[in-house]
User: Fold this.
Amino acid sequence: MHEIPTLIPSLGTIPPEIFERSFDFSKCLNVQEVSFGVWVDSRGVGLPWIPAALSTLRPATSPHLSVIKLSFTSQTGLPVGSMIADAGDNLRWTADEVARIKHEFEGAVDFDVFGDFRFRAVFDSLNVRLCFDVWKKPRGCTH
Amino acid sequence: MGSKSSKVKRPAPVKTKALTVPRIPQDLVDEILDHLATDSDQCGTLRPNVIASLRACALVSKAWVQPCQRHLFHTISFTPYNTCRWLETFPVQEGSPANHVRDLRLNIGDFFRLPEMFFKRIPWFTDVDSITLSGRSGVPLGYKKDPFPLEPSSWRLPRSATSLTVNTGAITLLEVRDIMAQLPNLDNLAFLGNFAKMDRGKLPGIGMTLKGRFGGLLMLNGESVGEDVINMLLEIPSGLHFTELDFYCTRNRLPSSAVRLAEACAKSLVKLSHGVSLLGKSLPFRLVHARNTDADTISRYNPPRNL
Assistant:
């Protein structure tokens, strides 16, 4: 059975069907690597199953987990404000799960997060710290 | 008199240093040629300059022929246009390099089909690891494809193959099942295209006859992450033991069939990917790519400390 979080502050109660339509890693004792491509469109639909899947990753049931890869892509030209408005809750939930996994696995899980500079801006505005591997550097970026 | 003539001194033979050619041990030759053949692109295809070098090396001596052929014929793509030349060049099995082919790629989706003679010689490919079926999926209006000279169930594909990639809409799922049924050692499967339409009433139960280990990578793209494919796989009597599942659906779509498949492989599953596949790439490419890190292509920087 899924361990359904009763309340995600930004989302309220999560409907159980979101978990039913997502991967349940609590049954995958040998899982080592999980990769998800996160697509954000102007409607922000279809996203919740990704944090729902991440929420089933626990040290007790996934003891061999070592890598999580997330690659964020979005509709071309979608501005940051629009992304926050449409997908902000799910992006925050995703980031919350990342933070939880980092904490619960005590650093044993490496995160590879890919996305362009807009996603960094989104996560910055949500006060979420994620270490990004960037695909495309913004103009003037000297890193 | 006769003794006089016998006394005639013959000129002493000129002492010359015997020309000694150093003999290079065969394992060293193999090592050098193996090293030469490592220069390939991401799909594992040898670069033109390497092919030219290996061709030249194959003329050095008989001892160099086999190792050169092993690399030159490792990966072969057969199309309706180049297959006749192969058939004419290698008419008998003894002289054919077919036993060196490890990665066999067949273009079955063109307007023209591979000749029947080729399918009769497929058993010559005795040590193939990977089979890729590719080709166009659509035919422009006004054209009609030739039928397969032999039904896919009669192709007698090499039983040694452990990987099958289907990247064409030229065959139906039922025909894919017939092809898979010839490969009892299948570990890796990749369905990268949409299958030709067929009567869905024929689909239930088609997985019951399949045998294979199915313990490697399963890669499904697009519409192949659909109920028909998943049902066929879930019907396999020996069960699924894939260690790696790789789904690519448009946007964030997650079909319930993908969830069912992950549940079926829960005990063996080591790696799961969704939506980050290399769309349209062949399984060999995917396997090669999986071994490489992205570190050299992606620049990493750390977030500022004030965050």
Q: What stands out?
A: The mean pLDDT of chain A is 77. Strands of chain A lie at 33-40, 67-74, 110-115, 132-134. The CA atoms of residues 99 and 131 of chain A lie 11 Å apart.
